[in-house]
Design goal:
Keywords: Magnesium, Metal-binding, Transferase. The chain is α/β, with parallel strands linked by helices. It contains 8 helices and 5 strands; from the N terminus they run ααβαβαβααββαα. Helix 1 packs across helix 2 and helix 2 runs parallel beside helix 3. 3-methylbut-3-enyl trihydrogen diphosphate (IPE) binds next to helix 1 and strand 1.
Amino acid sequence: MDGNGRWAKRRGLPRTMGHRKGVEAVRETVQAAGEAGVRYLTLFAFSSENWNRPEEEITDLMGLLKLFIRRDLAELHKENIRIRVIGGRARLDREILGLLVEAEELTRNNSAMHLVIAFNYGGRDEIVRAAKRLAEAVGRGELSPANVNEHTLSAFLDTAGIPDPDVIIRTSGEQRLSNFLLWQAAYTEFVFVPVLWPDFDKSAFHRALDEYASRERRFGAVPERDVALGS
Ligand code: IPE
Ligand code: MG
């Protein structure tokens, strides 16, 4: 979700107004994804690098997450949506932590769609934390180094049990991964859209899905038809 600041700047508004409008885009996207039959929707809400922003903007983004959970949790639960949070927990304040745990606990048996919130998330940070816990498991003798493979490492990531993303959509015209789901994105399709996040809506979401649907995914193999033709 990128472009909140630019959206506000273009209107001569403070950045915070862009973030506020961005929450509305979140609501619309969650709804659109549910209707489209998406099973897992991950939103990159706050990166481990976003701590470098001015303090008042950080406070504002934290406040918006709290507000979102307080206001929308009941509705998301009613929609049978399961919430999961990925990212480091160490730096988050107690109030945020409490709300995140509450959202995960309340919705843990829901099954319509998984809404994964990446908060204080960074792909490298996630891999480092996983490596640490894996090393601890080895140290305790629960895991042998010979059994460390992609599968066992994956189980230590925040995304354990969540399938790798089929597609990552980035708004605002930036064409970077910016430390999002580094490990999980090995074979993900990337769709970059020029729309600024606060303007992202159902039609922009469907355009991005159409773009994804037009891609041919080979996962390092050759297309079936070429195998059949022997070419
Ligand atoms: C939203 O957009 C990203 C979040 C941290 C939620 P930005 O705040 O990065 O907006 P730009 O890139 O300055 O336009
Ligand atoms: Mg940005």
